[in-house]
Amino acid sequence: MEQIRAEGFKVHETVPCLAPGDTDTDMARTIGHAVLGFTDVLERLRPDLLLLIADRYELLAPASVALALRIPMAHIEGGEISEGAIDDAVRNALTKLAHLHFTPTEKARRRVVAMGEEPWRVHRTGAPSLDHLQKSALPGRGELQDMLGIELKPDLIVVAYHPVTLSRDTLSEADAFYAALEKLPQQMIFCFPNADAGSQALIKRSEEFCDRRENAHVYVNLPHLAFWALLREAALMLGNSSSGIMETPALALPTVNVGMRQAGRERAANIIDVQADATEIVSATQRALAPDFRDRLKKDGVRNPYGDGHAAERIAEVISDLPPAEVLLRKRAMPLV
């Protein structure tokens, strides 16, 4: 196993997070510490608009501070669903705190309106990460191999697996996942999990797995361009990451999504969903790696429901013509139907 320290990468000795540890108590303390810090920053800056994205629990801190300071907020990627993570509740809370909404899909836009948000506030723009992915110059295979310090094999599997934060036992699905990995002979590259409750245990299991496998490597903190280039060169993405749902369709990369963390999200044709069962995970992986599956994706094309790479333009257009703060801040309840 190598815990890669590739040149040009910012590598942390521990999991990058705002508070030490990885328990639910640490997650709660992270929010509290962040509230104090954001109070000082936002009180000093008093921006015309605070732009928040997605569904990480840390975002509850700046949103709460902005609410108290009467700073209008815009939220990107509301209206989504991820039933197996606390991210789902965080996302919905941010939607109700925000004053403008930029949703990734049409279904998400309708869902935000159904939550009582006035339609003029809600705009379907797509996901900004796809703008970056589609417009950036990604490292080529040779450059990527030099950056990583390894040779990439044709059967490469990128593993991105996170705790299931809605479960009382956030590692309840991990045994099945790692049991499946033991049965897969392919080269694997592990990315560190999110700084959620249970992340340290997953890191330890990944490192122990890689210690037993010469063709398995752990990367602590991959820059986004290197990560996307890695996905472009991979044969498969395996895990339960939102990147597998939202970004791999843009690369037509077969993806096996495990367990309940991403339950409820819209899906593209490159994604195979499977329960957290070792046998089922292995079977789904074999299906995804079969040449006919990827050939079919290339032949038919993969329509990504999360956007076309022009989200930032749409968001900028709306922000450039904002109504006064007093209009944004006064949210009106939609009539009951």
Reconstruct the topology from this structure.
Layout: E1 2-4, H1 24-45, E2 50-53, H2 60-68, E3 73-76, H3 87-97, E4 100-103, H4 106-114, E5 122-124, H5 128-135, H6 141-148, E6 157-160, H7 174-182, E7 188-191, H8 199-211, E8 216-219, H9 224-233, E9 236-239, H10 242-246, E10 255-258, E11 271-274, H11 278-289, H12 291-300, H13 311-319, H14 325-329
Parallel strand pairs: 1-8, 2-3, 3-4, 4-5, 6-7, 6-9, 7-8, 9-10, 10-11
Helix pairs in contact: 1-2, 2-3, 7-11
What is the name of the CATH architecture of the largest domain? Answer: 3-Layer(aba) Sandwich
Number of helices: 14
User: H/E order of the elements?
Assistant: EHEHEHEHEHHEHEHEHEHEEHHHH
Major β-sheet annotation: 7 strands, parallel
Mean pLDDT: 92
> Helix share of residues?
40-55%
The CATH topology assignment of the largest domain is Rossmann fold
Structural class: alpha/beta
Distance between the termini: 59 Å
Indicate how many domains the architecture comprises.
2
CATH C-level name of the largest domain: Alpha Beta
Q: What overall geometry do the principal axes of the alpha carbons give?
A: globular
Task: Estimate the strand proportion.
Answer: 5-15%
- How many beta-strand segments? 11
Major beta sheet, strand line-up: 1-8-7-6-9-10-11
**Unreliable sequence segments:** 1-20
What would CATH call the homologous superfamily of the largest domain?
Glycogen Phosphorylase B
